Amino acid sequence: METMKKLPIGRSDFKSIIEDNMYYIDKSMLIKEIIESGDVILITRPRRFGKTLNMSMMKYFFRNDQDNKHLFEGLKIWKEKEVIEKYLNKYPVIYLTFKDAKANNIELLKKIIIEEITKIYILNEKIMEKLYEPEKEIYNKIMFKKADESEYMNSLKNLSEYLYRYYKQKVILLIDEYDTPIQQSYLNGYYDEFINFMGNVLGNALKDNEYLEKGVLTGITRVAKESIFTGVNNLQASTVLSELFNDKFGLTWKEVEETLRYYGLEYEKGKVIEWYNGYNFGGLEIYNPYSIINLADEKEIKYYWINSSGNELIKQLIRQSTAEVKTKIEELIEGKEIESSIDENLVYGDLDKSTEESIWTLFLFTGYLTWTKHTGEEGEPRYSLKITNKETLQFFKKTVVDIIKESKIHYESILMELIHENYEEFKIAFKKIVERTISYFDVSGEEPERFYHGLILGMVVGLSKKYIVKSNREAGYGRADVILIPKEKKEPGIIFEFKKHYIKEGDLKNSAELGIKQIEEKGYEEEIKSYGIEKIIKVAIAFDKKNVEIIVK
Protein backbone atom coordinates (compact mmCIF):
# COMPACT_ATOMS: atom_id res chain seq x y z
CA MET A 1 0.00 0.00 0.00
CA GLU A 2 1.45 3.36 -1.01
CA THR A 3 2.15 5.76 1.81
CA MET A 4 0.16 8.96 1.85
CA LYS A 5 1.91 12.03 0.52
CA LYS A 6 2.85 14.48 3.23
CA LEU A 7 0.88 17.70 3.40
CA PRO A 8 2.75 20.98 2.87
CA ILE A 9 1.66 22.49 6.19
CA GLY A 10 3.34 25.85 6.65
CA ARG A 11 5.30 25.50 3.41
CA SER A 12 5.06 27.92 0.55
CA ASP A 13 8.28 27.16 -1.34
CA PHE A 14 7.18 25.49 -4.56
CA LYS A 15 10.50 23.76 -5.25
CA SER A 16 10.71 22.01 -1.88
CA ILE A 17 7.07 20.83 -2.11
CA ILE A 18 7.64 19.25 -5.55
CA GLU A 19 11.08 17.82 -4.77
CA ASP A 20 9.86 16.31 -1.50
CA ASN A 21 6.91 14.77 -3.40
CA MET A 22 4.39 16.41 -1.09
CA TYR A 23 0.66 16.74 -1.77
CA TYR A 24 0.29 19.51 -4.36
CA ILE A 25 -2.86 20.86 -5.98
CA ASP A 26 -1.82 21.78 -9.50
CA LYS A 27 -2.26 25.49 -10.17
CA SER A 28 0.44 25.65 -12.86
CA MET A 29 -1.91 26.91 -15.59
CA LEU A 30 -1.75 30.24 -13.78
CA ILE A 31 1.60 30.70 -15.53
CA LYS A 32 -0.05 30.62 -18.97
CA GLU A 33 -2.80 32.99 -17.83
CA ILE A 34 -0.22 35.42 -16.43
CA ILE A 35 1.74 35.37 -19.71
CA GLU A 36 -1.46 36.18 -21.61
CA SER A 37 -2.47 39.02 -19.25
CA GLY A 38 -1.38 42.66 -18.82
CA ASP A 39 2.13 44.04 -18.33
CA VAL A 40 1.54 44.76 -14.66
CA ILE A 41 -0.82 42.46 -12.76
CA LEU A 42 -2.12 42.95 -9.26
CA ILE A 43 -3.74 39.96 -7.56
CA THR A 44 -5.58 40.44 -4.26
CA ARG A 45 -6.97 37.54 -2.21
CA PRO A 46 -7.49 36.86 1.51
CA ARG A 47 -4.48 35.66 3.48
CA ARG A 48 -3.39 32.02 3.20
CA PHE A 49 -5.08 31.46 -0.13
CA GLY A 50 -1.93 30.27 -1.91
CA LYS A 51 -0.56 33.61 -3.14
CA THR A 52 2.99 33.03 -1.93
CA LEU A 53 3.10 29.45 -3.23
CA ASN A 54 1.93 30.61 -6.66
CA MET A 55 4.49 33.42 -6.73
CA SER A 56 7.18 30.94 -5.72
CA MET A 57 6.07 28.65 -8.57
CA MET A 58 6.43 31.53 -11.06
CA LYS A 59 9.85 32.42 -9.73
CA TYR A 60 11.14 28.89 -10.38
CA PHE A 61 9.42 28.77 -13.77
CA PHE A 62 10.80 31.99 -15.25
CA ARG A 63 14.23 32.44 -13.64
CA ASN A 64 17.06 31.97 -16.09
CA ASP A 65 19.82 31.14 -13.59
CA GLN A 66 18.45 27.64 -12.88
CA ASP A 67 17.24 24.64 -14.84
CA ASN A 68 13.90 23.74 -13.26
CA LYS A 69 12.37 21.44 -15.88
CA HIS A 70 12.03 18.61 -13.37
CA LEU A 71 9.69 20.71 -11.22
CA PHE A 72 7.13 21.14 -14.00
CA GLU A 73 7.29 17.88 -15.94
CA GLY A 74 4.27 16.24 -14.36
CA LEU A 75 2.11 19.38 -14.22
CA LYS A 76 -0.64 20.72 -16.50
CA ILE A 77 1.59 23.51 -17.83
CA TRP A 78 4.01 20.90 -19.24
CA LYS A 79 1.51 20.10 -22.00
CA GLU A 80 1.68 23.72 -23.19
CA LYS A 81 4.72 23.17 -25.40
CA GLU A 82 4.88 26.73 -26.73
CA VAL A 83 4.87 28.23 -23.24
CA ILE A 84 7.55 25.78 -22.08
CA GLU A 85 9.84 26.50 -25.05
CA LYS A 86 9.50 30.24 -24.92
CA TYR A 87 9.35 30.97 -21.19
CA LEU A 88 10.69 28.17 -18.99
CA ASN A 89 13.89 29.46 -17.31
CA LYS A 90 14.33 32.21 -19.90
CA TYR A 91 14.03 35.44 -17.89
CA PRO A 92 15.93 37.30 -15.21
CA VAL A 93 13.62 37.46 -12.17
CA ILE A 94 13.50 39.98 -9.34
CA TYR A 95 11.56 38.33 -6.51
CA LEU A 96 10.75 40.25 -3.34
CA THR A 97 8.52 39.34 -0.45
CA PHE A 98 7.35 41.83 2.15
CA LYS A 99 5.61 39.27 4.33
CA ASP A 100 7.90 40.06 7.27
CA ALA A 101 7.79 43.83 6.80
CA LYS A 102 6.19 44.60 10.13
CA ALA A 103 7.41 47.31 12.48
CA ASN A 104 5.95 49.88 14.82
CA ASN A 105 8.09 52.74 13.51
CA ILE A 106 8.92 54.02 10.04
CA GLU A 107 12.72 53.81 10.36
CA LEU A 108 12.60 50.11 11.17
CA LEU A 109 10.07 49.38 8.42
CA LYS A 110 12.22 51.14 5.81
CA LYS A 111 15.21 49.12 7.04
CA ILE A 112 13.32 45.87 6.46
CA ILE A 113 12.38 46.94 2.91
CA ILE A 114 15.98 48.00 2.22
CA GLU A 115 17.21 44.65 3.57
CA GLU A 116 15.05 42.87 0.93
CA ILE A 117 16.43 45.07 -1.85
CA THR A 118 20.00 44.53 -0.60
CA LYS A 119 19.55 40.74 -0.78
CA ILE A 120 18.50 40.95 -4.44
CA TYR A 121 21.49 43.13 -5.26
CA ILE A 122 23.90 40.72 -3.57
CA LEU A 123 22.29 37.78 -5.36
CA ASN A 124 22.99 39.43 -8.73
CA GLU A 125 26.46 40.74 -7.92
CA LYS A 126 27.97 39.19 -11.08
CA ILE A 127 26.07 41.63 -13.33
CA MET A 128 28.36 44.42 -12.07
CA GLU A 129 30.86 43.53 -14.79
CA LYS A 130 28.49 45.17 -17.29
CA LEU A 131 28.11 48.39 -15.27
CA TYR A 132 29.80 51.76 -15.63
CA GLU A 133 31.89 53.06 -12.75
CA PRO A 134 29.25 55.44 -11.28
CA GLU A 135 26.68 52.63 -11.47
CA LYS A 136 29.05 50.25 -9.70
CA GLU A 137 29.50 52.82 -6.98
CA ILE A 138 25.74 53.01 -6.32
CA TYR A 139 25.44 49.21 -6.65
CA ASN A 140 28.05 48.81 -3.90
CA LYS A 141 26.36 51.41 -1.71
CA ILE A 142 23.12 49.45 -1.94
CA MET A 143 24.86 46.14 -1.18
CA PHE A 144 26.49 47.67 1.89
CA LYS A 145 23.29 49.54 2.93
CA LYS A 146 24.97 52.91 2.58
CA ALA A 147 22.79 54.36 -0.18
CA ASP A 148 20.60 57.46 0.02
CA GLU A 149 16.85 57.16 0.16
CA SER A 150 16.53 58.38 -3.43
CA GLU A 151 18.90 55.61 -4.56
CA TYR A 152 16.74 53.00 -2.85
CA MET A 153 13.67 54.53 -4.47
CA ASN A 154 15.21 53.90 -7.90
CA SER A 155 16.89 50.61 -6.96
CA LEU A 156 14.38 48.19 -8.53
CA LYS A 157 14.07 50.19 -11.73
CA ASN A 158 17.86 50.42 -12.04
CA LEU A 159 18.36 46.75 -11.26
CA SER A 160 15.96 45.78 -14.05
CA GLU A 161 18.03 47.85 -16.49
CA TYR A 162 21.30 46.26 -15.30
CA LEU A 163 19.83 42.74 -15.58
CA TYR A 164 18.62 43.55 -19.11
CA ARG A 165 22.06 44.74 -20.07
CA TYR A 166 23.66 41.57 -18.73
CA TYR A 167 21.18 38.97 -20.04
CA LYS A 168 19.82 40.86 -23.09
CA GLN A 169 16.40 39.90 -21.82
CA LYS A 170 13.67 41.90 -20.09
CA VAL A 171 12.93 41.29 -16.43
CA ILE A 172 10.06 39.64 -14.57
CA LEU A 173 9.35 41.43 -11.30
CA LEU A 174 7.45 39.45 -8.63
CA ILE A 175 6.43 41.20 -5.42
CA ASP A 176 4.64 39.12 -2.81
CA GLU A 177 2.56 40.71 -0.05
CA TYR A 178 3.21 44.20 -1.32
CA ASP A 179 0.59 45.68 1.04
CA THR A 180 1.82 44.16 4.32
CA PRO A 181 4.14 47.10 5.09
CA ILE A 182 1.47 49.57 3.93
CA GLN A 183 -1.06 48.08 6.35
CA GLN A 184 1.58 48.16 9.10
CA SER A 185 2.23 51.84 8.49
CA TYR A 186 -1.51 52.51 8.78
CA LEU A 187 -1.90 50.49 11.98
CA ASN A 188 1.08 52.23 13.59
CA GLY A 189 0.26 55.75 12.51
CA TYR A 190 2.95 56.69 9.96
CA TYR A 191 1.07 55.86 6.77
CA ASP A 192 1.36 59.22 4.99
CA GLU A 193 5.16 59.39 5.27
CA PHE A 194 5.68 55.73 4.43
CA ILE A 195 3.41 55.53 1.37
CA ASN A 196 5.59 58.11 -0.34
CA PHE A 197 8.72 55.96 0.10
CA MET A 198 6.97 52.71 -0.84
CA GLY A 199 5.15 54.36 -3.73
CA ASN A 200 8.46 55.45 -5.21
CA VAL A 201 10.27 52.12 -4.70
CA LEU A 202 7.50 50.16 -6.46
CA GLY A 203 6.05 52.87 -8.69
CA ASN A 204 9.39 53.72 -10.32
CA ALA A 205 9.90 50.06 -11.24
CA LEU A 206 6.38 49.59 -12.61
CA LYS A 207 5.83 52.84 -14.50
CA ASP A 208 7.16 53.21 -18.04
CA ASN A 209 9.94 50.74 -17.31
CA GLU A 210 11.15 49.63 -20.75
CA TYR A 211 13.18 46.79 -19.20
CA LEU A 212 10.13 45.17 -17.60
CA GLU A 213 8.64 42.12 -19.30
CA LYS A 214 6.01 41.57 -16.64
CA GLY A 215 5.27 42.77 -13.11
CA VAL A 216 3.12 40.68 -10.77
CA LEU A 217 2.15 41.86 -7.29
CA THR A 218 0.07 40.01 -4.73
CA GLY A 219 -1.57 41.30 -1.59
CA ILE A 220 -4.83 41.38 0.31
CA THR A 221 -6.00 44.84 -0.69
CA ARG A 222 -5.73 47.01 -3.75
CA VAL A 223 -4.27 50.25 -2.47
CA ALA A 224 -5.29 53.30 -4.44
CA LYS A 225 -4.78 57.04 -4.70
CA GLU A 226 -1.18 56.39 -3.78
CA SER A 227 1.80 56.81 -6.01
CA ILE A 228 2.22 53.04 -6.49
CA PHE A 229 -0.20 52.46 -9.36
CA THR A 230 -0.87 56.00 -10.49
CA GLY A 231 0.26 56.21 -14.07
CA VAL A 232 1.01 52.49 -14.40
CA ASN A 233 -0.01 51.64 -17.94
CA ASN A 234 -1.78 48.40 -18.71
CA LEU A 235 -2.46 47.50 -15.08
CA GLN A 236 -4.73 44.49 -14.72
CA ALA A 237 -6.23 43.79 -11.33
CA SER A 238 -7.68 40.48 -10.19
CA THR A 239 -9.74 40.84 -7.01
CA VAL A 240 -12.37 38.64 -5.39
CA LEU A 241 -14.90 40.37 -7.64
CA SER A 242 -13.22 39.56 -10.95
CA GLU A 243 -13.17 36.41 -13.09
CA LEU A 244 -9.47 36.75 -13.88
CA PHE A 245 -7.53 33.82 -12.26
CA ASN A 246 -10.64 33.03 -10.19
CA ASP A 247 -9.85 29.29 -9.87
CA LYS A 248 -6.11 29.72 -9.24
CA PHE A 249 -6.21 30.82 -5.59
CA GLY A 250 -8.13 28.71 -3.08
CA LEU A 251 -9.70 25.36 -3.98
CA THR A 252 -12.59 24.49 -6.25
CA TRP A 253 -15.09 21.87 -5.06
CA LYS A 254 -13.48 19.33 -7.42
CA GLU A 255 -10.07 19.92 -5.82
CA VAL A 256 -11.60 19.68 -2.34
CA GLU A 257 -13.28 16.37 -3.22
CA GLU A 258 -10.02 14.93 -4.55
CA THR A 259 -8.21 15.95 -1.38
CA LEU A 260 -10.91 14.51 0.92
CA ARG A 261 -10.93 11.27 -1.09
CA TYR A 262 -7.14 10.95 -1.01
CA TYR A 263 -7.01 11.40 2.78
CA GLY A 264 -10.11 9.27 3.48
CA LEU A 265 -12.28 12.13 4.67
CA GLU A 266 -15.17 11.90 2.23
CA TYR A 267 -17.61 11.36 5.08
CA GLU A 268 -16.94 14.98 6.18
CA LYS A 269 -18.19 16.53 2.91
CA GLY A 270 -21.32 18.08 4.45
CA LYS A 271 -19.42 19.76 7.26
CA VAL A 272 -16.64 20.92 4.92
CA ILE A 273 -19.23 22.79 2.84
CA GLU A 274 -20.71 24.43 5.93
CA TRP A 275 -17.38 25.38 7.50
CA TYR A 276 -14.90 26.20 4.75
CA ASN A 277 -16.96 27.04 1.65
CA GLY A 278 -18.60 30.27 0.63
CA TYR A 279 -15.86 32.33 -0.95
CA ASN A 280 -17.06 33.85 -4.19
CA PHE A 281 -14.19 34.71 -6.51
CA GLY A 282 -15.57 36.25 -9.67
CA GLY A 283 -18.70 34.10 -9.58
CA LEU A 284 -16.88 30.86 -8.77
CA GLU A 285 -17.40 29.02 -5.49
CA ILE A 286 -14.06 28.61 -3.71
CA TYR A 287 -12.98 26.84 -0.51
CA ASN A 288 -10.42 27.96 2.01
CA PRO A 289 -7.22 26.01 1.15
CA TYR A 290 -5.54 26.60 4.51
CA SER A 291 -8.44 25.02 6.41
CA ILE A 292 -8.78 22.11 3.97
CA ILE A 293 -5.06 21.23 4.12
CA ASN A 294 -5.08 21.41 7.93
CA LEU A 295 -8.25 19.31 8.08
CA ALA A 296 -6.61 16.65 5.90
CA ASP A 297 -3.68 16.67 8.33
CA GLU A 298 -5.53 16.70 11.66
CA LYS A 299 -8.67 14.83 10.50
CA GLU A 300 -10.83 17.10 12.62
CA ILE A 301 -13.35 19.80 11.68
CA LYS A 302 -12.36 22.90 13.61
CA TYR A 303 -11.35 26.54 13.26
CA TYR A 304 -8.05 26.69 11.39
CA TRP A 305 -7.96 29.84 9.29
CA ILE A 306 -9.49 32.24 11.81
CA ASN A 307 -6.99 31.14 14.45
CA SER A 308 -4.04 31.92 12.21
CA SER A 309 -3.84 35.61 13.23
CA GLY A 310 -3.80 38.64 10.99
CA ASN A 311 -6.95 40.32 12.30
CA GLU A 312 -5.50 43.46 13.92
CA LEU A 313 -6.83 45.88 11.34
CA ILE A 314 -10.28 44.29 11.29
CA LYS A 315 -10.48 44.45 15.08
CA GLN A 316 -9.40 48.07 15.09
CA LEU A 317 -12.10 48.93 12.57
CA ILE A 318 -14.84 47.18 14.53
CA ARG A 319 -13.70 49.01 17.64
CA GLN A 320 -13.78 52.42 15.97
CA SER A 321 -16.85 51.83 13.85
CA THR A 322 -20.09 53.74 14.07
CA ALA A 323 -23.18 52.34 15.73
CA GLU A 324 -24.58 51.74 12.26
CA VAL A 325 -21.71 49.41 11.37
CA LYS A 326 -22.01 47.60 14.70
CA THR A 327 -25.75 47.12 14.11
CA LYS A 328 -25.05 45.71 10.65
CA ILE A 329 -22.47 43.34 12.12
CA GLU A 330 -25.22 42.11 14.46
CA GLU A 331 -27.46 41.55 11.43
CA LEU A 332 -24.69 39.60 9.72
CA ILE A 333 -24.22 37.43 12.81
CA GLU A 334 -27.95 36.70 12.71
CA GLY A 335 -27.42 35.31 9.20
CA LYS A 336 -28.82 38.26 7.27
CA GLU A 337 -27.28 39.89 4.21
CA ILE A 338 -26.37 43.55 4.03
CA GLU A 339 -25.85 45.70 0.97
CA SER A 340 -22.97 48.05 0.34
CA SER A 341 -20.95 49.78 -2.34
CA ILE A 342 -17.53 48.21 -2.66
CA ASP A 343 -14.58 50.39 -3.55
CA GLU A 344 -12.01 48.10 -5.12
CA ASN A 345 -9.43 50.85 -4.77
CA LEU A 346 -9.25 50.83 -1.02
CA VAL A 347 -7.73 53.95 0.49
CA TYR A 348 -6.22 53.36 3.91
CA GLY A 349 -6.47 57.08 4.58
CA ASP A 350 -10.26 56.78 4.39
CA LEU A 351 -10.42 54.09 7.06
CA ASP A 352 -9.79 56.76 9.67
CA LYS A 353 -12.98 58.44 8.62
CA SER A 354 -14.61 55.03 9.14
CA THR A 355 -16.40 55.32 5.83
CA GLU A 356 -18.73 52.36 5.80
CA GLU A 357 -17.83 51.49 2.25
CA SER A 358 -14.14 51.11 3.18
CA ILE A 359 -14.95 48.87 6.13
CA TRP A 360 -17.16 46.48 4.15
CA THR A 361 -14.63 46.50 1.29
CA LEU A 362 -11.91 45.47 3.69
CA PHE A 363 -14.09 42.74 5.24
CA LEU A 364 -14.80 41.41 1.74
CA PHE A 365 -11.18 41.51 0.53
CA THR A 366 -9.88 39.89 3.71
CA GLY A 367 -12.34 37.00 3.39
CA TYR A 368 -14.52 37.60 6.45
CA LEU A 369 -17.46 38.45 4.21
CA THR A 370 -18.38 37.13 0.79
CA TRP A 371 -20.55 38.63 -1.93
CA THR A 372 -23.66 36.84 -3.11
CA LYS A 373 -24.83 39.08 -5.94
CA HIS A 374 -24.19 42.32 -7.73
CA THR A 375 -27.10 44.56 -6.82
CA GLY A 376 -26.05 47.86 -8.39
CA GLU A 377 -26.95 49.23 -11.78
CA GLU A 378 -24.57 48.36 -14.58
CA GLY A 379 -21.13 49.62 -13.66
CA GLU A 380 -22.21 50.53 -10.12
CA PRO A 381 -20.25 48.50 -7.55
CA ARG A 382 -23.06 47.61 -5.13
CA TYR A 383 -23.12 44.08 -3.73
CA SER A 384 -25.04 41.91 -1.28
CA LEU A 385 -22.69 40.68 1.43
CA LYS A 386 -22.90 37.95 4.05
CA ILE A 387 -20.63 36.11 6.48
CA THR A 388 -18.63 33.60 4.46
CA ASN A 389 -19.08 30.37 6.42
CA LYS A 390 -19.22 28.80 9.85
CA GLU A 391 -15.53 29.43 10.44
CA THR A 392 -15.75 33.16 9.77
CA LEU A 393 -19.01 33.39 11.73
CA GLN A 394 -17.03 32.23 14.75
CA PHE A 395 -14.57 35.07 14.15
CA PHE A 396 -17.39 37.63 14.20
CA LYS A 397 -18.96 36.18 17.32
CA LYS A 398 -15.64 35.95 19.08
CA THR A 399 -14.33 39.32 17.94
CA VAL A 400 -17.47 41.26 18.72
CA VAL A 401 -17.55 39.68 22.17
CA ASP A 402 -13.79 40.25 22.61
CA ILE A 403 -14.14 43.90 21.75
CA ILE A 404 -17.02 44.18 24.17
CA LYS A 405 -14.86 42.53 26.84
CA GLU A 406 -12.12 45.05 26.11
CA SER A 407 -14.48 47.69 27.54
CA LYS A 408 -13.32 46.18 30.85
CA ILE A 409 -16.90 45.64 31.96
CA HIS A 410 -18.49 42.32 31.49
CA TYR A 411 -21.71 43.25 29.73
CA GLU A 412 -23.50 40.08 30.67
CA SER A 413 -23.13 40.76 34.36
CA ILE A 414 -24.89 44.10 33.84
CA LEU A 415 -27.85 42.38 32.27
CA MET A 416 -27.85 39.89 35.13
CA GLU A 417 -28.36 42.84 37.49
CA LEU A 418 -31.52 43.58 35.53
CA ILE A 419 -32.69 39.96 35.52
CA HIS A 420 -32.05 39.73 39.28
CA GLU A 421 -34.02 42.94 39.79
CA ASN A 422 -31.04 45.00 40.98
CA TYR A 423 -32.31 47.93 38.96
CA GLU A 424 -30.17 50.68 40.50
CA GLU A 425 -26.96 48.71 39.90
CA PHE A 426 -28.04 48.15 36.30
CA LYS A 427 -28.61 51.88 35.76
CA ILE A 428 -25.23 52.88 37.23
CA ALA A 429 -23.31 50.25 35.23
CA PHE A 430 -25.12 51.08 31.98
CA LYS A 431 -24.37 54.79 32.34
CA LYS A 432 -20.70 53.97 32.92
CA ILE A 433 -20.54 51.97 29.72
CA VAL A 434 -22.11 54.79 27.75
CA GLU A 435 -19.45 57.20 29.06
CA ARG A 436 -16.66 54.81 28.16
CA THR A 437 -17.72 53.77 24.71
CA ILE A 438 -19.53 56.74 23.31
CA SER A 439 -16.30 58.43 22.22
CA TYR A 440 -16.01 55.87 19.42
CA PHE A 441 -19.33 56.92 17.94
CA ASP A 442 -20.88 59.81 16.25
CA VAL A 443 -24.06 60.06 18.32
CA SER A 444 -24.93 63.47 17.01
CA GLY A 445 -25.82 61.81 13.71
CA GLU A 446 -29.25 61.14 12.33
CA GLU A 447 -29.92 58.02 14.33
CA PRO A 448 -28.27 58.05 17.75
CA GLU A 449 -30.76 55.30 18.68
CA ARG A 450 -28.50 52.98 16.75
CA PHE A 451 -25.68 53.52 19.23
CA TYR A 452 -27.85 52.43 22.16
CA HIS A 453 -29.44 49.69 20.11
CA GLY A 454 -25.97 48.39 19.23
CA LEU A 455 -24.92 48.59 22.87
CA ILE A 456 -27.84 46.47 24.08
CA LEU A 457 -27.36 43.99 21.24
CA GLY A 458 -23.69 43.80 22.21
CA MET A 459 -24.71 42.95 25.75
CA VAL A 460 -27.03 40.15 24.72
CA VAL A 461 -24.60 38.45 22.30
CA GLY A 462 -23.51 36.13 25.10
CA LEU A 463 -27.04 35.39 26.27
CA SER A 464 -28.29 33.66 23.13
CA LYS A 465 -28.22 30.27 24.89
CA LYS A 466 -30.72 31.46 27.48
CA TYR A 467 -32.77 33.98 25.50
CA ILE A 468 -34.37 34.42 22.10
CA VAL A 469 -33.32 37.90 20.98
CA LYS A 470 -35.61 39.91 18.71
CA SER A 471 -34.51 43.28 17.55
CA ASN A 472 -36.78 45.95 16.04
CA ARG A 473 -39.54 43.42 15.50
CA GLU A 474 -43.19 44.14 14.98
CA ALA A 475 -44.74 43.52 18.39
CA GLY A 476 -48.34 44.22 19.26
CA TYR A 477 -49.31 47.41 17.46
CA GLY A 478 -45.86 48.84 16.84
CA ARG A 479 -42.22 47.97 17.19
CA ALA A 480 -40.21 47.48 20.34
CA ASP A 481 -36.49 48.06 19.93
CA VAL A 482 -35.14 44.91 21.56
CA ILE A 483 -37.07 42.04 23.13
CA LEU A 484 -35.52 39.19 25.15
CA ILE A 485 -37.67 36.09 25.45
CA PRO A 486 -36.34 33.58 27.99
CA LYS A 487 -36.14 29.93 26.99
CA GLU A 488 -36.89 29.00 30.63
CA LYS A 489 -40.49 30.08 31.42
CA LYS A 490 -39.71 31.01 35.02
CA GLU A 491 -37.17 33.66 33.93
CA PRO A 492 -38.38 37.20 33.18
CA GLY A 493 -38.81 38.57 29.65
CA ILE A 494 -37.27 41.99 28.97
CA ILE A 495 -38.39 44.82 26.66
CA PHE A 496 -36.03 47.69 25.79
CA GLU A 497 -37.32 50.93 24.31
CA PHE A 498 -34.94 53.78 23.33
CA LYS A 499 -36.19 57.36 23.35
CA LYS A 500 -34.31 60.29 21.91
CA HIS A 501 -34.90 63.35 24.09
CA TYR A 502 -36.77 66.34 22.65
CA ILE A 503 -36.85 69.63 24.56
CA LYS A 504 -40.64 69.89 24.28
CA GLU A 505 -40.93 66.71 26.38
CA GLY A 506 -39.45 68.45 29.42
CA ASP A 507 -36.49 66.79 31.11
CA LEU A 508 -34.83 63.46 30.27
CA LYS A 509 -36.85 61.69 32.97
CA ASN A 510 -40.07 62.67 31.20
CA SER A 511 -38.77 61.18 27.96
CA ALA A 512 -38.00 57.91 29.74
CA GLU A 513 -41.50 57.86 31.25
CA LEU A 514 -42.92 58.34 27.75
CA GLY A 515 -40.88 55.29 26.72
CA ILE A 516 -42.51 53.16 29.44
CA LYS A 517 -45.90 54.52 28.44
CA GLN A 518 -45.23 53.54 24.84
CA ILE A 519 -44.32 49.96 25.84
CA GLU A 520 -47.60 49.69 27.78
CA GLU A 521 -49.86 51.44 25.28
CA LYS A 522 -48.59 49.65 22.22
CA GLY A 523 -48.92 46.18 23.67
CA TYR A 524 -45.28 45.18 23.22
CA GLU A 525 -45.70 42.60 25.99
CA GLU A 526 -48.04 40.46 23.90
CA GLU A 527 -45.25 38.72 22.01
CA ILE A 528 -43.46 37.66 25.20
CA LYS A 529 -46.69 36.54 26.86
CA SER A 530 -47.48 34.34 23.86
CA TYR A 531 -44.47 32.21 24.93
CA GLY A 532 -46.07 31.59 28.33
CA ILE A 533 -43.82 34.05 30.18
CA GLU A 534 -45.47 35.81 33.09
CA LYS A 535 -42.87 38.19 34.47
CA ILE A 536 -41.85 41.04 32.17
CA ILE A 537 -39.31 43.77 32.89
CA LYS A 538 -39.84 47.02 30.96
CA VAL A 539 -36.78 49.23 30.38
CA ALA A 540 -37.01 52.68 28.82
CA ILE A 541 -33.70 54.35 27.99
CA ALA A 542 -33.96 58.07 27.18
CA PHE A 543 -30.88 59.87 25.95
CA ASP A 544 -29.58 63.19 24.82
CA LYS A 545 -26.16 62.50 23.30
CA LYS A 546 -24.16 61.27 26.34
CA ASN A 547 -26.79 61.92 28.98
CA VAL A 548 -28.93 58.92 29.83
CA GLU A 549 -31.99 58.42 31.99
CA ILE A 550 -33.30 54.89 32.63
CA ILE A 551 -36.64 53.81 34.06
CA VAL A 552 -37.25 50.15 34.85
CA LYS A 553 -40.68 48.78 35.70
Concise overview:
The chain is 44% helix and 16% strand. With 553 residues, it is of the alpha/beta class. The N and C termini lie far apart (73 Å).
Any chance you could write out the topology, listing elements then pairs?
Blueprint: H1 14-19, H2 29-35, E1 40-44, H3 51-62, H4 69-72, H5 81-87, E2 93-97, H6 106-123, H7 133-143, H8 149-153, H9 155-167, E3 171-176, H10 180-187, H11 191-206, E4 212-219, E5 235-238, H12 253-262, H13 269-276, E6 279-281, E7 284-286, H14 289-298, H15 312-320, H16 323-333, E8 338-341, H17 348-351, H18 356-365, E9 369-374, E10 382-387, H19 390-406, H20 411-419, H21 423-437, H22 449-460, E11 467-475, E12 478-486, E13 493-500, H23 508-521, H24 525-529, E14 536-544, E15 547-552
Helix pairs in contact: 9-11, 10-11, 16-22, 20-21
